[in-house]
Amino acid sequence: MYKLCKTEQSAARQKAIARALLAEMAARPYGEITITDLCCKLGMPRKTFYRYFDGKEDALHALLDDLLLNGSLYTSSAPDHPLDGVDVLEQYFRFWLQHKQLLDILQRNGLSGLLVERGTYLVNAQKLPLVTDHSLGPGQRMDRVALFAQAGLISLVLQWHHSGCTQSPRRMAQDVYTLLTSPLFAQP
Predict the structure, then answer these.
(1) Nearest partner of 176 among 67, 105, 66, 96, judged by Cα
(2) CA 7 to chain centre
(3) What's the pTM value of the predicted model, to 2 decimals?
(4) CA angle, 20 as apex, 91 and 94 as ends, to 5°?
(5) Which residues, 6 or more positions from 28, have their beta carbon under 8 angstroms from its beta carbon?
(6) Beta strands in 81-187, from DSSP E residues, in sequence order
(7) Model pLDDT for residues 47-104, shown as the tens digit of each residue
């Protein structure tokens, strides 16, 4: 597990280490990268690395968590121009298109599924504020709805990426909005 930083300086150092890992992953396979490599690249002793992370996978987790927490699910709109569902989803797909290099690196290293894992971890840890104002019937649980939505959206992003992002973010948003607003199963 990565450590939670108490100061801006230590948070910046932790992010620098995670970004260095991503830069190394752009150049060579994740499995070949060592903590020693990262420390040499950053000019820091190994003990500094271990102040922030237990291992290199924790640095990757921190990178993905930061990305998921600080952008992919959040949108902003001006009060005079509220966003509709398709607009929100389009921003979501545009966000991931801007982070296509990260998706490429994860895919090349066989780590795409880690994005789903981290997204669902953040939902379970209640670190992602998802829409919770739906009226659910007796016995229905919002946490399951949030998990389903998070895993589904990230899976659609990965499928879209794996197919080369051939559809525009707007088209993906329209398709996903249709999926989200249509009954999942036909009623007999």
Answers:
(1) 96
(2) 23
(3) 0.83
(4) 10
(5) none
(6) none
(7) 999 999 999 999 999 999 999 887 655 555 555 666 788 998 999 999 999 999 999 9
d(CA 183, CA 110): 33
CA–CA distance, 41 with 68 (Å, rounded to integer)? 26
| Per-residue pLDDT, 181 | 86
What is the rounded CA–CA span in Å between residue 91 and residue 167? 14
Quickly count: other Cβ atoms within 10 Å of residue 8's Cβ. Answer: 8
Domain map (residue ranges) of the chain: 8-66, 81-181
Burial-class residue 7 by CB neighbours within 10 Å (0-12, 13-18, 19+). exposed
Helix or strand run (H / E) with residue 179: helix 169-181
The C-alpha atoms of residue 41 and residue 20 are separated, in whole angstroms, by: 8
Contact 110, 29 (CB under 8 A): no
Distance CA(88)–CA(180), nearest Å, equals 13
What is the DSSP secondary structure assignment for residue 145, as one 8-state letter?
Answer: H
Q: In the chain, what are the helix, strand and coil shares in percent, each to the nearest 5?
A: 65, 0, 35
DSSP string, 114-140: HHHHHHHHHHHTT-S---------TT-
